[in-house]
Amino acid sequence: MMNEKKSEPFKAMKRSETDPGTTSKEERPVDSDRLNSLIDLLRNTRKIEWGGGDVIGKAEDGKDILQWPFPIYPDGLYESLYELAVPDRNYIENYERLGDPIDYGNLTMEESRTVITHYVRGERFCDGLIAGAVEDGTLLKVAERMKEICDRNGSEN
C-alpha cells in the first residue's frame, strides 16, 4: 500500500514560505546538542530493559500482589523526547494525516514533532510504547530526519 498523506493541512502549524519542509522561526528552535545526544543514545540502544513484575506482598486471601511491569529508559531519553516534541496539541489528528506507513524520510519538522508527541503522550497510556519505537528504530529515523532538516537550514531550526 502506498503511503499517502491526507490532504488536509496540519492544525495549528505554520510552514515556512521559502521551504515547505521546515517550520517558521516562530516555532521553538531545536536544541541541536540535545538532538545530537538523543541520536547517539538511540543508535546505542537496541533493547529497553523492563522492571517490575515482582511479588511485592500478599493479599488478604493469600494471593501474590505483583508490581506492574514498567520500562526502564536510559537516562535522558524521555526528557530529550519531551523537549523535542514541542508538544503538538493536535497530535492525534495530525498523526493520522501522516498516512500508513509513515514516510519518515520526508517528514517536515512539524510532522517529526508530531510523531515524537504521539510516542511521548502515548507512553502515558501504554507503558512501553516508547520502548517499541526505540527497539524498532522509529524514533531514530525521526531524530535523524530532524537533524537533516536542521543541518540543511543551519544549526537551529
Walkthrough of the structure:
The protein is mostly helical and 157 residues long. 41% of the residues lie in helices and 8% in strands. It contains six helices and four strands, in the order αββββααααα. Strands 1-4 form a two-stranded antiparallel ribbon. Strands 2-3 form a two-stranded antiparallel sheet. A hairpin with a 5-residue loop joins strand 2 (55-58) and strand 3 (64-66). The longest helix has 15 residues, at 109-123. It starts with 31 loop residues before the first helix and ends in a 5-residue tail after the last helix.
Q: Main sheet, how many strands, which sense, barrel?
A: 2 strands, antiparallel
Shape: elongated
Low-confidence parts lasting 5 or more residues at pLDDT below 50?
Answer: 5-26
Number of alpha- plus pi-helical segments = 6
| Gyration radius from CA atoms, angstroms | 18 Å
- Trace the largest sheet across and list its strands: 1-4
Q: What's the count of strands?
A: 4
Structural class category: mainly alpha
**Beta-strand residue fraction:** 5-15%
Q: What is the ordering of alpha helices and beta strands?
A: HEEEEHHHHH
Percent in helix:
40-55%
Mean pLDDT: 83
Rounded to the nearest angstrom, the distance between the terminal CA atoms is 33 Å
